[in-house]
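Thought: the user wants the 3D structure for the chain below. I'll pass the sequence to the structure tool as-is, report back what it returns, then summarize two notable features.
Action: structure_tool
Action Input:
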Amino acid sequence: MQGATNYSGLYNTGNIVGSFGVGDLAADRYNLFVNVEGFHRDRVGFRDAESFLNRSEFFNSTRYRTGQQAFSSYAPQFNIFPGPDVNFVFDPATLGSAQIFNINGPGIGSLSPCPAGQQRPGQTVCRFDIWPYVDIVPKTDRANIFSRGTLELNGTTSLFAEASFNQIKTRYSGAPQVAGDFGSFYASGTNTIVNIPEVLPPGHPNNNTGDFAAYRYRFTDVGPTDGEVKSNTIRFLLGAKTTFGAWDIEAGALYNENKTDATSLNQIRTSVFTRALLDGTYNFANPTAGRVTAAQLRVNSTDTAKSSFSILDLKTSTEFGSLPGGAIGVAAGLEYRREERRATPDVLKTQGEILGFGAASAEGSRNLVSAYAELRLPVLKSLEIQIAGRTDKYSDYGRSSIPKIGAAWTVLPNLKLRGSYAEGFRAPSLTEISKSSVSAFTQVLDPKLCIDGNQNECAQPIGLLIVANPNVKPETAKTYNAGVVFEPTKDSSLSLDFYKIDRRNEINILSLNQILNNEDSTDPRYVGRIVRGKPAPGQTVGQIQVIRTGFFNLGQTVVRGVDVDARQKFSLGEYGRLDASVLLSYTDQYKNSGSPDSPLVSQNGFRDYPRVRARTSGTWEVGNWASTATANYLSGFKTF
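Observation:
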């Protein structure tokens, strides 16, 4: 049993483990053991940890805004914005596509009284504090059971089996849903754009302006949009080991399956809200007083996903022949794999019935056959060379074959040089290459209709559709390593390794800016990706309705650096022994590009790309006791 917390009583975790076993492999020729584990982690919200997060160095940052007030102008007091063309613009035909560009003009305010402290100085709109709904660490519960058994048939042959079950439950916090000028969204099931009324017409019970009025509202009466994710994973393995002559042989069969249910709570039913707004039956000033209440608006949605893979493998190894450094070692193997994936969104999402939500779906399967081999050549007592290769045949995109060569030279008994060259690949995932799509909504600047920055098209809400690409190819990589290991004494060691990684054909989503800037291009990557509506009177092009994007081989990343590993053992006599280590990684270069046409841009020293990572630790052992202290270091980073 184990528990942990920090000095503020936050980040609390608890862990309990139990094991059971029977049989002695040497005496009984079988054994079986079972391990059971339970884990719990408390939620930590932003408000719990804001004394640390609201640091002065973040306060004025344009990128890291944790030090600034995050009061949203979507509030339950119903902020109302009169004055079309003065404070906002909209589409009078649909009462949608609203864009509020002034939140502090004449007549702007909230329908209900604003609580103290929820208005910014000099403003009349009411604000809503979203930070209590922001997770730093979500609440998590995990349960796991694992078992393994082995049966020896004779001195050279044995059978083994494994079975496991793992369940993870995670609860995410979410602020209540909003309505107002947040834009259209895409319904994948009907292939249509969904617009909700974002402007109150004259005569609406909650509109006393005598004209059209935009609004921003938060449905606190419906409840927080928390999320619950439950993931169950099962795994079964059955295998056998034997010796045939000079060959060691192992064969196995594995099945792994994961099922995930993701439930979004307290969402808004689009059609119910639209009707209630248009006919005035939902009372924004007093939600419990209207004919349509929170219970009628409220809807929960659940997305489901299932993925699995089955593996049959056979591998063997032996030694033969003789070189000056010893016998030649060889290992080889064959593998067959079947992969399947299905992701099914809630049917209400596909129909555009969950306000502001798109849908993600995937369905695909493939077969994979692999063969690999490795040769170890002890050319001299002091020099060993390794040569390896692998080929994989995928049923969807084709074949990938990669080599590897490495060498280690013991120059002196305490000094070794080593180096290697390897190629690698990442096959496109089933989500990237099979039948899959994600529908959502976003905002873009339309370069054809945004003339001087004041048009609605300068922040145009649109539907977004991301689809798989059956023609995408695998990512490829080349890795270079060169290093030295120095052991001046039996208790001291120091290793220094230089590396370079060049990864190409990285699979990325074609960016919306690229698509918008190449709308009239004849390049097949861009043709037909923008869907526009009918042009308005006096215009030659219509507003963007949908942009379709997808996965392409676009990017490249080059990384170069050095890793240092220093270790020292100290004898403390009657006070035991101390083992100390320092691990340091220095990144000299980290460059990438988002498209084949873009130059490599350095990310080194910025957020997520620190130049230096280091860890030092010491373990003191005396008698039956061992104590370990560890310190981690991450170098500072620059804001963008």
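Final Answer: Structure generated. The radius of gyration is 31 Å. The helical segments are 25-28, 46-53, 56-59, 270-279, 294-297, 347-350, 430-433, 512-517.
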